[in-house]
Amino acid sequence: MKKIRPFRLGQIIATIVQLSYYPALWTGFIYQGFTKRFCVPILTCWGCPLNRFGCPMGALQHFIGIKQIPFYIAGFFGAVGILVGRMSCAWVCPFGLLQDLLKKITRIKLSLPKWTTYTKYAVLIGIAGIAVYLTTEPWFCMLCPAGILEAGLPIVLTDKTGELKALVGWLFKTKIAILVFVILGSIFIKRFFCRVLCPIGATYSVFNRFSLVQMSVDLSKCGEKKCNLCRKVCPVDINIYDNPNAKECIRCLECKHKCPKGAVSVSLKPY
Amino acid sequence: MKRFIIVVIILIVFIISLFYGVKKRQEIETETVGSVMCLSCMGLQQ
Fold first, then answer.
1. Nearest Cα to A110, choosing from A192, A233, A195, A230?
2. Least CA distance to A70: which residue of chain B?
3. CA B31 from chain center: how many Å?
C-alpha cells in the first residue's frame, strides 16, 4: 500500500475540519457560530455552508472597505508569515489539495514564465486592496474561484425556492469562467492558482526569507551531478538548491523526504 | 543572531497588532460579516 505523504494527510484533515458544518446539508443555512471569528491561514470561502471558519482575505477586504486599519487580520497574516512563511499553503489549504489532485489527471507538465508569478502581487494590491478601498466592494471575493466552487455552485444548484437562481447574472458567469480557467491551468501547471493568482500566497511569500522555519540545502551532499529529484517532486516546480527559501516554496517538505542523500533540511533556527 | 532578534521583534509587533484588533472587537466584526450569506462570494447580484 502506498504510504500517504505527511503534507497530504495535513491537507485532508484540515479540509475535513474546516468544512465540517454538516447540518447545513439539510437546513440550508450557513454556519454562524463563534469559530467564524477565527480566520484560517489559507483560501477558503466563508460563504460555504459547510465552513466553520473565517476567510482572511474576506475579512481584510471588509476592513479596507469600511476604511478601518485591519489590525486583527494584519497581525494574523504577519504572525503566521513570520512563524512558518508559506507552509500553510501546502499543509492546510483545501484549494491547494484540489490543485494537487487536478495535476494528477495528466502527465503533461507546462512551465510558467517567471514574470507570471508576480501577478499575484498585483491581485493582492490592486484587486484586494486599492479597488476595495475605492469602491467598498469586496472585489477579490467577487472574482474568487473558491467562492463559486464552495459556495456559489452548491447553493444555487440546491436552491429549491428559485430565489437565488434569479440572482444569477454576469458576475456568476464570470466566476464560472475564472473557475474553469483555474481548473484547466491546474491540470497542466503545478499549483497554477497558488503561483499566479493567490493573494494569500502573495502575502506569505514575502515572509519566506525571514520566517522562523527555514529550509536549507547542503550542496556538498548533492554532488556535481544533481539528480533533480527535488525538482521532480516539488509541487511548485522550483529548484530548492538554487534558493532554499524562494518566495514560491510552500514548505511541503517533499524534497526533504524524497532526497536520497539527505541534502535538504528544515530548521526552526534560521540565523 | 542580530537578525534573529529583529525577526522576533517583528513577530511581537504582529502579535500586538492582533491583540489590538481583538481589543477593538475586530474579531467579533469578522464573525458577524462571515455569518451572513455573502452574495458577492457566490457571484450573485441583487
1. A192
2. B21
3. 11
Helix, strand, coil content of chain B in percent (nearest 5)? 75, 0, 20
Do B43 and A30 lie within an 8 Å CB cutoff? no
Local confidence pLDDT in tens for the 46 residues of chain B = 888 899 999 999 999 999 999 999 999 999 999 998 888 899 998 7
d(CA B21, CA A65): 16
Q: In the 8-state DSSP scheme, what is residue A245?
A: T
User: Which of the residues B7, B30, B31, B32 would you substitute to probe the A interface, choosing the one with the greatest number of A C-beta atoms within 10 Å?
Assistant: B30
d(CA A138, CA A175): 14
- State how far the Cα of A144 lies from the Cα of A121, in Å rounded to an integer: 15
pTM of the shown model: 0.92
Partners of A60 on chain B (C-beta within 8 Å) are none
Q: All 3 cell numbers of residue B10?
A: 517583528
Q: Is residue A169 less than 8 Å (CB to CB) from chain B?
A: yes
Q: Which of A35, A142, A72, A49 is nearest to B18 (CA)?
A: A72
Q: Given A72, A138, A172, which is nearest B22 (Cβ)?
A: A72
The pLDDT assigned to B1 comes to 81
